[in-house]
Automatic annotation (TrEMBL):
Belongs to the ABC transporter superfamily. The keyword Nucleotide-binding applies. Keywords: ATP-binding, Nucleotide-binding, Transport. It comes from Paenibacillus piri. One of its GO terms (molecular function) is ATP binding. Pfam families: ABC_tran, DrrA1-3_C. The keyword ATP-binding applies. It comes from the Bacteria. This is ABC transporter ATP-binding protein. Residues 2-232 form the ABC transporter domain. InterPro entries: AAA+_ATPase, ABC_transporter-like_ATP-bd, DrrA1/2-like_C, P-loop_NTPase.
Length: 309
């Protein structure tokens, strides 16, 4: 659905995207993550045909964005990270306005708009002024607006930003429904654990370059090559920590009031052998567990460079 090849974007002397390449399969939900200023919005604006790349190509549904912008626009629904909602409109009028802009006949809009409002849980706000809606509601209305022309691809730039936890969950549920409807979704976010539940793949961007891409599980597994073990023993804790330091695959041992934390580079079998070695040496184990890595850890580990702004 999306093919990006050697995409570069410069703003004056500043290079926001550096020869970035990335493909996204049709029907997949792709999470685009990276620190502030990494280049997510720039990439999304180029895909949405709103910004011209400096060099390289970006294709949506096989259409190159600069050569066939009209075809691309039919295929995409774009939700920018910052949007206005024409406050003087009522919710229904607002969607009529956008539907009409896409050339949908009134009869079709009359049928479609109640369905869209239901999808984004705004049926009871159909006759309210947009101005009176909460931020979360406005964000859902903006999502409904992206859907009026039934696009195949949704490009959503931080759709959950600024929402409270409940509104975020609502947004996530709607995105799940859209995924079930077969839409391809490119979504950027800083709220990584929430993305993990719904995305098929993630791409991590930093300083305008894609530095990791793959299935959430694969990237997490890659991280697990550097697992941290949490061990508590009944007694002789300092002695156990010294013992662990000399064991295979152990790179670092930290010892604090919560117990012993072992940075471990081995695989499952090695981890099991380490436990056997401890027990074999008479240490009485209370806890032997692997600290969970989640998307947040993955993100922090991969983007060690920090804020790109
Ligand atoms: N119009 C512009 N003129 C000059 N620099 C720009 C312009 N737009 C973006 N940039 C710069 O390009 C870089 C990438 O910005 P972009 O908005 O794509 O990042 P982002 O990953 O979406 O960040 P955020 O998470 O903060 O939205 C930033 O350093 C930004 O300051």
């Amino acid at each position: 659905m999306i093919e990006i090849k050697d995409l570069t974007k410069t703003y004056g002397s500043f290079t926001a995207l550096k020869s970035m390449s990335m493909d996204i399969a049709k029907g997949s939900v792709f999470g685009f993550v990276g620190p502030n200023g990494a280049g997510k919005s720039t990439t999304m604006s180029i895909l949405a045909t709103l910004l011209a790349p400096t060099s390289g190509t970006a294709k949506v549904g096989g259409f190159e964005v600069t050569e066939h912008p009209k075809e691309v626009r039919k295929l995409i629904g774009y939700m920018p990270d910052f949007f206005g909602v024409y406050d003087q409109f009522k919710t229904t009028e607002y969607l009529h306005f956008y539907g009409a802009s896409y050339g949908l006949p009134r009869a079709e809009r009359e049928k479609l708009i109640p369905q869209l409002l239901e999808l984004v849980n705004l049926t009871d706000k159909a006759d309210f002024y947009v101005d009176s809606l909460s931020r979360g509601m406005k964000q859902r209305l903006c999502l409904a607006r992206c859907l009026v022309h039934d696009p195949e691809l949704l490009i959503l730039d931080e759709p959950a930003s600024g929402l409270d936890p409940r509104a975020r969950i609502e947004m996530r549920e709607i995105l799940k429904e859209l995924k079930a409807m077969g839409k391809t979704i490119l979504i950027s976010s800083h709220i990584l654990p929430e993305l993990a539940e719904m995305v098929d793949e993630i791409g991590v961007i930093e300083h305008g370059q894609l530095i990791a891409k793959g299935k959430v599980q694969d990237i997490q597994n890659r991280m697990r090559a550097k697992r941290v073990l949490h061990i508590r023993v009944l007694d002789r804790e300092a002695e156990a920590a010294a013992f662990l330091q000399d064991q295979p695959h152990v790179s670092m041992v930290l010892h604090d009031e919560q117990g012993i934390h072992v940075h471990f580079g081995g695989q499952d079998e090695d981890q099991s052998n380490l436990l056997l070695a401890l027990i074999g040496s008479g240490y009485r184990i209370i806890t032997y567990s692997e600290a969970q890595t989640n998307l947040e850890d993955v993100f922090l580990e991969i983007t060690k460079g920090g804020d790109a702004t």
